[in-house]
Amino acid sequence: MTEDREVLASVFAARVVLARKQEAQVVEEAVAEYHRTLTWLESRSQKQGSFLWFCDEFDLDPATVRREILKARVA
User: Fold this and answer.
1) What is the number of alpha carbons within 13 Å of residue 67 lying toward its C-beta?
2) What is the rounded distance in angstroms from the CA atom of residue 63 to the CA atom of residue 51?
3) pTM metric for this prediction
4) pLDDT tens for residues 19-69?
5) b/e per residue, 49-60, with b = 16+ CB within 10 A?
6) Which band of pLDDT confidence, cut at 50, 70 and 90, is reported for residue 75?
7) How many angstroms separate the Cα of 42 from the Cα of each of 4, 27, 38, 46, 66?
């Protein structure tokens, strides 16, 4: 299986799992994930998978990315 096909299979499987849940459970999980994401965004960790690690991988300025996210959230 190619990497692209593996990604597609993962997306498909995730959507099937999501579709099987009750709406209230989906909302609860989404809110929890949102809060984890905000914590991840503000983290100073540089470990693999951290916000700062991704910024470094993609040659992005973390302060600029955070500022743009904040602007989008208050708009």
Assistant:
1) 5
2) 11
3) 0.75
4) 999 999 999 999 999 999 999 999 999 999 999 999 999 999 999 999 999
5) eebbeebeeeee
6) confident
7) 31, 23, 6, 12, 8
